[in-house]
């Protein structure tokens, strides 16, 4: 059953566990010694980067989430990276951890770093297949749009676009702030804002979308603005 890291990878489960010594990895992620936790997270990171079957490591998701919730931890970036890669492999397995991941990303936004981007990338992977897991966090994601980190804004807006595609009404309270991002200086944010506004049926954005479709210097933004404008004209 999908959820707290109980994922079938298609290989024989016993063989997969034996190959990667998964029980040892799980135990070491709960160690009292942070240096042991750090080394183990590095092992997981290397594995999900290089392994032909990263799904083998999905049982680590609940333990990685708990590490993400430890404020004093000094290797949040590695933990968030692992969660993002595992979310790309199986959104269902990471979906139960969305609340904690959102709170982490929200807490980092005053001084965002790579860990914030990875956390938001994780959310976008989940939202692509499981927007229902993220729909209650629109307000928090909109807050992230104010961060100075363009990559963080890009993934936050991507997540909002997936939510809007599933439930237009969910993003309506944020329509003004979504429209403001059409002026973002980072082209991927503008592109994703077009998607969110089009899927969200934010008709108030028509004039600004028309301007982007005609004048934006980025061809991807022009294309998505034209698409959104067509969606709002139907």
Describe it.
68% of the residues lie in helices and 0% in strands. It is elongated, with a radius of gyration of 19 Å. The longest helix is centred in the first third of the chain and has 17 residues, at 34-50. The protein contains 15 helices and no strands. Helix 5 (76-89) packs parallel to helix 8 and helix 13 runs parallel beside helix 15 (219-233).
Keywords:
disordered N terminus; Leucine-rich Repeat Variant; single chain; 0% strand; 234 residues; 2 domains; elongated; mainly alpha
Apparent shape: elongated
Task: State Rg.
Answer: 19 Å
According to DSSP, the number of beta strands is 0
Helix content: 55-70%
Number of helices: 15
| Weakly predicted, low-confidence segments | 1-18
CATH architectural category of the largest domain:
Alpha Horseshoe
List the helices and strands and how they pair.
Elements: H1 13-20, H2 22-29, H3 34-50, H4 61-68, H5 76-89, H6 91-94, H7 98-108, H8 114-129, H9 138-144, H10 150-166, H11 168-171, H12 175-180, H13 187-199, H14 206-215, H15 219-233
Helix pairs in contact: 3-5, 4-5, 5-8, 7-8, 7-9, 8-10, 9-10, 10-13, 13-15, 14-15
In short:
The chain contains 15 helices and no strands. It is mainly α. It has 2 domains: 1-159, Leucine-rich Repeat Variant; 167-234, Leucine-rich Repeat Variant.
């Amino acid at each position: 059953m999908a959820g707290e890291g109980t994922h079938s990878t298609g290989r024989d489960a016993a063989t997969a566990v034996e190959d990667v010594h998964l029980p040892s990895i799980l135990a070491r992620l709960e160690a009292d010694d942070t240096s042991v936790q750090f080394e183990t997270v590095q092992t997981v990171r290397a594995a999900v980067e290089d392994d032909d079957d990263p799904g083998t490591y999905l049982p680590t998701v609940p333990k990685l989430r708990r590490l993400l919730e430890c404020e004093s931890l000094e290797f949040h970036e590695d933990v968030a990276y692992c969660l993002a890669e595992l979310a790309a492999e199986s959104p269902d397995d990471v979906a139960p951890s969305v609340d904690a991941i959102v709170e982490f990303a929200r807490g980092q936004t005053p001084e965002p770093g790579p860990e914030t981007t990875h956390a938001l990338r994780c959310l976008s992977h989940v939202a692509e297949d499981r927007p229902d897991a993220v729909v209650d966090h629109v307000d928090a994601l909109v807050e992230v749009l104010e961060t100075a980190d363009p990559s963080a804004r890009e993934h936050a807006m991507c997540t909002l676009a997936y939510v809007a595609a599933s439930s237009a009404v969910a993003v309506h309270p944020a329509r003004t702030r979504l429209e403001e991002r059409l002026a973002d200086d980072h082209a991927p944010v503008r592109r994703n804002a077009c998607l969110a506004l089009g899927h969200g049926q934010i008709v108030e954005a028509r004039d600004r979308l028309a301007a982007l479709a005609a004048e934006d210097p980025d061809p991807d933004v022009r294309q998505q603005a034209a698409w959104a404008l067509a969606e709002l004209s139907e």
